[in-house]
Amino acid sequence: MAAPVAGPEIERLVQLLARLPGLGPRSARRAALHLIKKREELLGPLSEAMRVAHERIVTCSTCGNIDTSDPCTICRDVRRDRSLLVVVETVSDLWALERAGLLRARYHVLGGVLSPLDGVGPDDLNIAGLVERLRGGEVRETIIAVNATVDGQTTAHYIADLIAPLSVKTTRLAHGVPVGGELDYLDEGTLAAALERRTVF
Amino acid sequence: MAAPVAGPEIERLVQLLARLPGLGPRSARRAALHLIKKREELLGPLSEAMRVAHERIVTCSTCGNIDTSDPCTICRDVRRDRSLLVVVETVSDLWALERAGLLRARYHVLGGVLSPLDGVGPDDLNIAGLVERLRGGEVRETIIAVNATVDGQTTAHYIADLIAPLSVKTTRLAHGVPVGGELDYLDEGTLAAALERRTVF
What we know:
Two copies of one chain form a homodimer.
Chain A: H1 8-17, H2 25-37, H3 39-56, E1 58-59, E2 66-67, H4 73-76, E3 84-88, H5 91-100, E4 106-109, H6 127-135, E5 141-144, H7 150-163, E6 169-172, H8 188-196
Parallel strand pairs in A: 3-4, 3-5, 5-6
Antiparallel strand pairs in A: 1-2
């Protein structure tokens, strides 16, 4: 390995950037050079945005979302339907549903899925918090909007069983052909679900 | 568009990350969530590394490299052969050559290539600085290591003509089949160069 090309500051910036998902060593170098080139328009503001995020972002103690306030913006939003609670795996799933703008509900972020092989049990997820919220009596329907993976569905069944005694209506997302999806590329499970739940024109 | 999911701080972080090369809106969201998850190990250090870079990184007034000192680490390195100067387009090309560790030379970063269509002329590049360095008399050989693109080669010829009167030996990189390259994927120009300059076993 050759001696460092530049001072340790640039090396460090490249190494840290390379740890972002989606960036490898080469793209981290490109990103670092881009940042240094766009010093005032990008490097300065991004550095500042990260400092603010580092200092101020907290996890909402109610729902598990991230925000600069606790409770988060969504939990504090009085225009949302407090009787509808959407259970998601991660904050990025919450963001995906919010971007779609289909619901004015509140959320509960589990922080993952049950995965015995990876040693993730119910106590590792924000499930106790969910039960506590449902016991509050305000929620009328819980939509379990976890991913349609094996672990996701296992988790959904576990939660549905757990909250069954709480007399809250529990629903889950429909399976079927994605809009724009081509049958040729879909797995058998999806095709079976789409056929089974076919609807009349 | 739905209302912002979280406070403006996170939105801003995502928007700035999306301006990095190699990251789009979706990967910028993933990167932001990853940063927030790895708050102490990654977000804090990266924020600090960017702050330091923003404050301290300068362009070397001798060679055009970037560093936290001027002259840069390479220009100050007394173990380098001062008689050999390698002309490159960009700092990332300089880094690529340094990573290969094949030379202990000094560099001259042009900052781009001549491109009449994009309005880039000789005065937009660090060419006057190159001539001045060569007039210093220390350099015995100039390797013009620009990219093998049309604009790169035009620039190489322009520079070679310009510095011809300075009685400095001027060389350029060889064309040929890249190591590990498959003939089927190479263009005709590369194949022609590789055939023409074929060597005896």
